[in-house]
Amino acid sequence: MSWRGIFTALLLVAVLATGWMRWLQRDREPARNAAQRRPDYVLSDFELIALDKKGQESFTLRAPKLERDPDAETMTIATPLFVIPPAQGSQNQPWEVRSQTGWVSPEGKELRLRGQVTAQSTNKDGKPVSVATEELNVFPDEQRATSSAPITLRQPGFTLSGRGLDADLKANNIALKSDIKGRYERTPR
Questions:
Q1: 160, 175 contact by CB (below 8 A)
Q2: Residue 63, exposed/middle/buried by CB under 10 A (0-12, 13-18, 19+)?
Q3: For a tag on the chain, would you pick the N or C end, based on fewer CB atoms within 10 A?
Q4: Does pTM surpass 0.90?
């Protein structure tokens, strides 16, 4: 056998060995990338009270799990319950907002709630008010909420549905944007 034949055989063995090693390592690379994106902290079964710039309660959060992404400085939350207090001096009850998932922006200025979102409080007359949707964006410092998804708003004797929402939580004022339909129902006295 000539030196060219030996050299070709060695190159072929090297290519096959490199390909084989690369094939064996294919499952390990995604695991390494996932480990690099691990949360920098995880909270389990917790209650957190967030304060605004004036030191007043902005909202309270209860959830079974919260994870913080160290790169984006955002948080993801499993089945959160947000309690947003009424404006000072208001007779209204706090808003209780629940969803399947939650996301909090880096400075905590925006909460994105997704999946079976419900918000409950009382109106100016002390009657219960509930809002149901699949997505809701809450801005706690501004005490407002928005959505572009279908919305159902219920009060005793009245149901209002539509698409999109702008809510002023300070004034307990909720406005639906489009496709609005209302239904009155008799309420027992």
A1: no
A2: buried
A3: C
A4: no
Between residues 19 and 118, which one has the greater pLDDT?
Answer: 118
Q: Which residues pair with 126 in a beta bridge?
A: none
Distance CA 164, CA 166 (A): 7
Do the domain assignments include residue 59? yes
For residue 184, give Cα distances in angstroms to 122, 156, 157, 181: 18, 9, 6, 10
What's the token pair of residue 115? 């999946």
Number of domains present in the structure of the chain: 2
Percent of the chain having pLDDT more than 90? 41
- Is residue 189 situated within a structural domain? no
Is residue 90 over pLDDT 60?
yes
Q: Residue 138: give the domain boundaries.
A: 41-184
Pair (25, 45) in one structural domain: no
